[in-house]
């Protein structure tokens, strides 16, 4: 056990830090969920990252990465959040589809999709949920009908984050007539293909964070299938492992938020009761506990281990800590907490309200926390299935 | 950067864990309770034969000269079985303190072979297993005194946990008993090892709950098949999963003795205490009315967690340490590890 970075790891941190200081936009970019313009501004940032070869540092060099290990990925993320760099518009691509493609994709698929993904040329959305298949994902009804060298896609997807403006989606479909976990395939399709209709869905604050996708005889080549035909469930569960495990939500995100919360507390502490100090301390501890857990997980993976059902504990922990942390900040702000950035009296440069609205669905997406608790009880602890 | 135990550490922990699981079952605990004996002589001699009391003692005193990262997994295992004997405090707090003294009057070597020395740290109101001690390390203001058992008089203070054998000690400090003024890291070691035991206790409460919930049926099904029960247990497991790495990191960082490592110990103690408390109450709930009886085994583990939660610093004291650290030292994504705060900011 050595809880100290090597000189090389420290030098890497400095390299990231210097690049971020020279390149991170000074002000926030316009939202990527409100206008095409905001979306494209984030795409430009992704291109800039890629020019610095920071698109996805863990990928092999020939696919646009740097071939770095997970510890360096964590260091990169720490510096990324520390610098206040823009939220990754392509997170569903680089953090979820990317690792899945690395595991299940053909060489042709990897070289076709991953460099463009790392560069932000293709921004990806996930198309799994359907109106009748949320927590019970095996209930998807959208179909992929084989027609020679093509699949014909039909059906309806929903809650697809970024899909309003994204370029591509990775969707879960089934052979007509198949049931439940069998006969599913993961198929990649362009969101501007003939037969695709997108209907944005406004979040409670008006941002178009997700969309419904209607597929009406959409034709894609069978080479767009990721993994074996009929093995879509297996492929998706690997993606879900990355999602819940250590890719989707970096500990650095919460550590940076906790740092800002401490600064907010310091600014107002003369008027605050001791109970607020305790909540601030709790948020800091939780963010650090999550970081330590991920470092332990990364060390385990580096030694040849795997991520099992314990990934579900991560997802519960970060989603709950995110809400609690923002609630504490909002309580410190008092009656100014409800002001949006547009209000003349708004005096909240850190936008805690936006952060709170972002945190709210954390316990729902990537598999609801109720489903995660079932997984922990059944697969980690061996309690009987219902 | 490598946050995992070495193969040697895993092996020594596993050997100790197997011995403890075998020699310290709930029925062994009941037998000991009924016997009225302070400890199980057979188990204690096995523990001493394995060299566990001297795990952190220098080789010159017959010890293994290992560190807290070698002991922390054994402390978890001791918690898991609800070990009544005071192995962990002796091995991880008393012996390192004896080793730090200029003159230990020969007690270091005796303690490393299992001759019990009790510790009355100023942080704690009571001294554990004082009646079993051949000598006692006692606080007088900042001073440390090493006092032979014959020179003290003891008053037993009954604890909720019959195996936490607490005493108040009456004694007279003198220049002959004065051995030092630096408690060094004894308080931090005590808190960390209490935290490690609470991780084990919490995990035991969860494992007992799972096993009971598989057997007990209501409405024609095992109660463990109901989501309401599953989710209680899962939530307690989440609390343990995010306390355990903090405890392990605290063990590795404690020797740095800076604000960040002290806060890590405090965090470990708070988080492990909350997790064990949640797990113990979950065990009571899952066991239903049986859970509050003396007949079910839950109470052994609930009581130990209850005692340890406030030993070696209360939640309030440890919270104060954390608040002090976050408001005075660097925080944020590049400040996870204490070693990064003991060296100058890379900027």
UniProtKB/TrEMBL annotation, chain A:
It comes from Novosphingobium barchaimii LL02. Residues 125-217 form the Acyl-CoA oxidase/dehydrogenase middle domain. Belongs to the acyl-CoA dehydrogenase family. Residues 6-121 form the Acyl-CoA dehydrogenase/oxidase N-terminal domain. This is Acyl-CoA dehydrogenase. Its cofactor is FAD. Keywords: FAD, Flavoprotein, Oxidoreductase. One of its GO terms (molecular function) is oxidoreductase activity, acting on the CH-CH group of donors. Pfam families: Acyl-CoA_dh_1 (PF00441), Acyl-CoA_dh_M (PF02770), Acyl-CoA_dh_N (PF02771).
UniProtKB/TrEMBL annotation, chain B:
Residues 190-326 form the Acyl-CoA dehydrogenase/oxidase C-terminal domain. SUPFAM superfamilies: Acyl-CoA dehydrogenase C-terminal domain-like, Acyl-CoA dehydrogenase NM domain-like. Residues 6-113 form the Acyl-CoA dehydrogenase/oxidase N-terminal domain. GO terms for molecular function: acyl-CoA dehydrogenase activity; flavin adenine dinucleotide binding. Gene3D superfamilies: Acyl-CoA dehydrogenase/oxidase, N-terminal domain, Butyryl-CoA Dehydrogenase, subunit A, domain 3. Keywords: FAD, Flavoprotein, Oxidoreductase. InterPro entries: AcylCo_DH-like_C, AcylCo_DH/oxidase_C, AcylCoA_DH/ox_N, AcylCoA_DH/ox_N_sf, AcylCoA_DH/oxidase_NM_dom_sf. Its cofactor is FAD. Pfam families: Acyl-CoA_dh_1, Acyl-CoA_dh_N. Belongs to the acyl-CoA dehydrogenase family. This is Acyl-CoA dehydrogenase. It comes from Novosphingobium barchaimii LL02.
């Amino acid at each position: 056990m050595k809880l100290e970075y090597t000189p090389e790891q420290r030098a890497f941190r400095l390299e990231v830090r210097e690049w971020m200081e020279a390149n991170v936009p000074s002000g926030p970019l316009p939202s990527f969920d409100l206008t095409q313009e905001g979306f494209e501004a984030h795409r430009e940032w992704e291109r800039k990252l890629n020019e610095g070869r920071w698109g996805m540092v863990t990928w092999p060099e020939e696919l646009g990465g740097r071939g770095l290990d997970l510890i360096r990925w964590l260091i990169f993320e720490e510096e990324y959040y520390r610098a206040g760099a823009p939220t990754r518009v392509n997170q569903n691509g680089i953090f979820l589809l990317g690792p899945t493609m690395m595991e299940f994709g053909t060489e042709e698929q990897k070289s076709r999709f991953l460099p463009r993904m790392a560069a932000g040329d293709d921004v990806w959305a996930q198309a799994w949920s359907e109106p009748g298949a949320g927590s019970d994902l095996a209930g998807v009804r959208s179909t992929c009908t084989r027609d020679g060298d093509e699949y014909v896609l039909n059906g309806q997807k929903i809650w697809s984050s970024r899909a309003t403006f994204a370029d591509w989606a990775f969707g879960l479909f089934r052979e007509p007539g198949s049931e439940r976990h069998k006969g599913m395939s993961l198929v990649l399709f362009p969101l501007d293909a003939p037969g695709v209709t997108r209907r944005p869905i406004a979040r409670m604050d008006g941002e178009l964070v997700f969309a419904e996708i209607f597929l009406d005889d959409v034709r894609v080549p069978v080479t767009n299938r990721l993994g074996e035909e009929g093995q879509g469930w297996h492929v998706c569960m690997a993606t879900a492992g990355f999602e819940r495990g250590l890719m989707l939500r970096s500990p650095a995100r919460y550590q940076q938020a906790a740092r800002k919360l401490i600064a907010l507390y310091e600014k107002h502490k003369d008027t605050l009761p001791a109970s607020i100090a305790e909540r601030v301390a709790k948020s800091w501890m939780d963010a650090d506990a999550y970081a330590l857990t991920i470092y332990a997980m990364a060390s385990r993976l580096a030694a040849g281990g795997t991520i099992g059902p314990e990934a579900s504990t991560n997802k519960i922990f970060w989603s709950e800590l995110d809400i609690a942390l923002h609630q504490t900040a909002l309580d410190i702000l008092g009656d100014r907490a409800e002001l949006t950035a547009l209000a003349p009296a708004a005096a909240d440069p850190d936008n805690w309200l936006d952060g709170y609205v972002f945190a709210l669905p954390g316990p729902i997406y990537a598999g609801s926390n109720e489903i995660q608790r079932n997984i922990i009880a059944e697969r980690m602890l061996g309690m009987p299935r219902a | 950067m490598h946050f995992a135990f070495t193969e040697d550490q895993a092996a020594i922990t596993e050997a100790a864990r197997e011995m403890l699981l075998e020699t310290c079952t709930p029925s062994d605990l009941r037998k000991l309770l009924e016997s009225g004996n302070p400890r199980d002589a057979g188990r204690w001699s096995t523990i001493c034969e394995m060299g566990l009391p001297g795990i952190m003692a220098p080789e010159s005193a017959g010890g293994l000269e290992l560190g807290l990262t070698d002991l922390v997994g054994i402390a978890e295992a001791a918690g898991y079985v609800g070990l009544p004997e005071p192995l962990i405090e002796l091995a991880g707090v008393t012996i390192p303190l004896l080793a730090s003294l200029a003159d230990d009057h020969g007690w270091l070597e005796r303690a490393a072979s299992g001759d019990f020395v009790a510790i009355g740290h100023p942080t704690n109101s009571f001294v554990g297993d004082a009646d079993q001690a051949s000598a006692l390390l006692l606080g007088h203001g900042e001073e440390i005194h090493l006092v032979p058992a014959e020179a003290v008089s003891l008053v037993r203070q009954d604890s909720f946990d019959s195996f936490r054998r607490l005493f108040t000690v009456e004694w007279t400090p003198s220049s002959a008993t004065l051995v030092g003024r630096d408690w060094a890291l004894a308080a931090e070691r005590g808190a960390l090892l209490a935290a490690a035991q609470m991780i084990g206790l919490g995990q035991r409460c969860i494992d007992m709950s799972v096993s009971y919930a598989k057997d007990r049926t209501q409405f024609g099904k095992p109660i463990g098949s109901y989501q309401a029960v599953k989710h209680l247990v899962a939530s307690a497991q989440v609390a343990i999963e995010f306390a355990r790495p903090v405890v392990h990191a605290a063990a590795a960082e404690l020797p740095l003795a800076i604000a960040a490592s002290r806060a890590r110990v405090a965090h470990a103690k708070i988080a492990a205490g909350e997790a064990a408390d949640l797990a113990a109450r979950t065990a009571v709930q899952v066991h239903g009315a049986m859970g509050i009886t003396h007949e079910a085994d839950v109470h052994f583990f609930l009581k130990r967690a209850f005692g340890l939660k406030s030993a070696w610093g209360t939640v309030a004291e440890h919270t104060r340490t954390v608040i002090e650290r976050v408001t005075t030292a660097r925080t944020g994504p590049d400040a996870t590890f204490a070693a990064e705060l003991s060296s100058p900011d890379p900027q």
